[in-house]
Design a protein that fits this description.
Helices cover 30% and strands 28% of the residues. It is an alpha+beta fold. A hairpin with a 2-residue loop joins strand 10 (111-118) and strand 11 (121-129).
Length: 681
């Protein structure tokens, strides 16, 4: 079966831009490699507390703080004033309505580009972030005009945690003049932000200000049952007059010495993205369709620095935008797709070394809290995904030096499972399977919890955990041989697990129990977790049972963009994700479709049916989804009922990574990893 046409479909005219209900539902994202980002909507209207021009990572990759909120623009041309911004206010009014003059929106790489039609003039705006800096650029250029165009920019700022909202009552920030603009300090000890504006021949005219714009209505937050009103502070107005082909650039920066050369900054951004695509091409991806190449750029948006006192080059993966930080499970699951599939194996090695420093009692952190130094270790699968990530890296690169360095870490993880560690995690000597869980704690990826309510309790022996456990033991044997250690112990344990894994088979239903030996016995609910017992490199199931698992998932769980987390018809099934936090978390894993599972399903389907084209076709709907929600990326989840509307994070690491990894493997005819290029000794 053929791939979809070779276009990413990430450009629209007035048919989309001029319809507010559509244009405000499509969101763009720029990132800086530190965990910081800029984001907003095609319409230009903020709809989330996470929307802004500069959400700086003040303690990379976390400490994310909204500093530069938005810019309200007015263009004066042909004896008329054109308000280009779009805002919705607390009383429901939309004013101004700049989206009506938006002729075109597109992505240039990951850079959002707006083109406004003002009589016979065309004005272009583009936004991007400096790589490795808390700096955002907003660049305006007159593409066409028959006379001078005066552009006036009102710059609005904030200084709040990106999860919060602001009330400006009585809050006075210090606004001081500097060359080219203003420096704003929100309060004593706060990181200042500088707003500078260039114009033809030097700086734009600047008029400092201090007035609160109150009552921005955030529609997405209202839908989520959260506070939906936000205030931002107007700190300066920048004005200049432009002729055709002339430009004006606003830079918002939390750096001590912000750059001021916009053309140099644009070259840095384009060089960075050209390097990302060049790595992909050299790794064999040159013939990939445009939507896959767009995903390669999207993958880069999740890779971030995590500098440590003894490892300043530390790196990590942001789990999802806008509200997730770096999570151990998500990082390890996404790593092969982000680094091996894209030809950036050296980044993968750095991330593996970074996370090795956080292993404790054989466990990898579940997540790093935004405002805390101590990682949280409430996960049973992160360490098992880590073993698989190391195995995948070794098999792809032949890097025995890394395997040798990390082998003691992997061995400590496996022995901790054999001996027992936190949260009841340990191996049952009766069958060799991993059990996990204690009341009130959720340890698997199905981790929704509201107060004391664990929505999907999976205490006992979860099926995917034991598929990962078997795979980890087989991986340990492979790595032991690579570093000249005896593999026999791991091979013996793997055989024991394969025997015990037979207990998962639900003969009456024709697929696997989701959990066995739980407080209420074995759980027969049809969930997608069992697909990992087929898609992972090592499977404990025989051929007939692998086929039955794939068919059960295909017939009852498969949706256009992933697998449902629970089969329709089950008593707890919910087909739509939405409402307040209790309603959302209550449906999170009760039928909601998860995009990351589409990759493992496609690979499992290929493993059974041996048709790479047919398996790759399961990924094709993602080509259309790239223009439907988080423009250029893949969302976290989708409704379980058609038409499978996107929900949750607009850009999710493992959704992007697993799509890329599966496409790459299937395009290469089913080889699990690229051929080894070198061996490190």
């Amino acid at each position: 079966m053929a791939d979809r046409p070779a276009h990413a479909g990430l450009a629209w005219g007035r048919e989309i831009c001029g319809r507010l209900e559509v244009a405000e539902s499509r969101e763009w994202l720029c990132t800086n490699g530190l965990g910081g980002f800029a984001s907003g909507t095609v319409a230009g209207m903020p709809t989330r507390r996470y929307h802004g021009l500069l959400v700086a990572a003040l303690n990379p990759p976390l400490g994310r703080t909204l500093l530069a909120s938005t810019v309200d623009e007015v263009a004066e041309y042909a004896e008329r004033a054109w308000a280009l911004s779009t805002n919705r206010w607390a009383d429901g009014a939309v004013d101004p309505r700049g989206y009506r003059d938006l002729e075109r929106f597109e992505l240039d790489g990951t850079t959002p580009v707006w083109t406004y039609a003002l009589a016979d003039a065309l004005l272009e705006k583009r936004i991007w972030m400096e790589p490795d800096a808390n700096t955002t650029w907003v660049w305006y250029r007159v593409l066409r005009s028959s006379g001078p165009l005066t552009l006036r920019l009102q710059a609005l700022v904030n200084h709040r945690d990106y999860h919060a909202t602001t009330r400006g009552n009585g809050w006075h920030m210090d606004v001081s003049r500097v060359d080219g603009g203003v420096r704003v300090t929100a309060y004593e000890g706060a990181r200042p932000i500088q707003l500078l504006c260039t114009a033809p021949g030097g700086w734009a005219q600047v008029a400092p200000a201090h007035s609160w714009f109150r009552g921005f209505h955030l529609a997405c937050e209202a839908e989520r049952g959260l506070d939906a009103c936000d205030d931002h502070l107007h700190v300066a107005t920048f004005t200049t007059t432009l002729a055709r082909a002339e430009t004006m650039a606003l830079v918002a920066s939390a750096e001590t010495r912000p750059p001021t050369d916009v053309e140099g900054a644009w070259r840095r951004r384009t060089r960075h993205e050209a390097d990302v695509l060049g790595r992909w091409d050299r790794a064999g991806g040159r013939t990939a369709p445009a939507w896959i190449r767009q995903l390669v750029l999207a993958a880069d948006q999740f890779i971030a620095r995590r500098p440590l006192a003894d490892d300043p080059a530390g790196m990590t993966v942001i789990a999802g935008y806008h509200w997730f930080g770096d999570w151990g499970r998500d990082t390890m699951l996404a790593l092969p797709g982000f680094t091996l599939a894209t030809g950036r194996a050296e980044i993968g090695a750095r991330i593996l070394r970074t996370f090795a420093r956080f292993v404790d009692r054989g466990m990898l952190p579940n997540r790093f809290p935004d405002a805390a130094e101590t990682p949280e270790y409430n996960t049973v699968d992160a360490s098992l995904w880590y073993v698989e990530a190391v195995r995948a890296h070794y098999r792809a690169t032949g890097d025995t030096a890394l395997a040798r360095d990390l082998y003691p870490v992997l061995e400590s993880m496996v022995r901790a499972h054999l001996e027992g560690t936190r949260y009841g995690i340990g191996v049952d000597p009766a069958d060799g399977l991993v059990r996990a869980g204690e009341p009130g704690v959720q340890l698997t990826w199905m981790d929704a919890k509201v107060g004391d309510w664990v929505v999907t309790p999976r205490m006992g022996k979860p099926v995917e955990i034991n598929a990962l456990w078997y795979n980890a033991l087989r991986a340990m044997a492979e790595l032991a041989r690579a570093v000249r250690r005896p593999p026999g112990e791991w091979e013996t344990l793997a055989r024991r697990v394969a025997e015990g894994f037979g207990r998962f088979w639900n003969a009456g239903a024709g697929y696997c129990f989701d959990v066995i030996d739980g407080p209420d016995g074995d759980d027969p609910a049809l969930r997608p977790n069992q697909i990992l017992a087929v898609s992972l490199p090592a499977s404990p199931l025989d051929a007939a049972r692998r086929r039955a698992v794939v068919d059960a998932c295909a017939h009852q769980l498969l949706a256009s963009y992933g697998l449902r987390s629970l089969a329709p018809g089950q008593p707890a099934y919910r087909g739509r994700y939405g409402g307040d936090q209790t309603q959302r978390d209550g449906s999170y894993h009760q039928g909601t479709v998860w995009g990351w599972l589409l990759g493992p399903f496609a690979l499992a389907h290929f493993a059974i049916y041996k048709d790479a084209g047919a398996a790759r076709a399961f990924l094709s709907p993602m080509a259309d989804h790239l223009g439907d929600y988080g423009v250029g990326s893949i969302s976290e989840i989708f409704d379980g009922d058609a038409p499978f509307a996107p929900r949750g994070c607009i850009a999710q690491a493992w959704s992007v990574a697993e799509t890329l990894r599966a496409w790459r493997i299937l395009a290469e005819g089913g080889r699990r990893t690229p051929a080894r290029r070198r061996r490190h000794r």
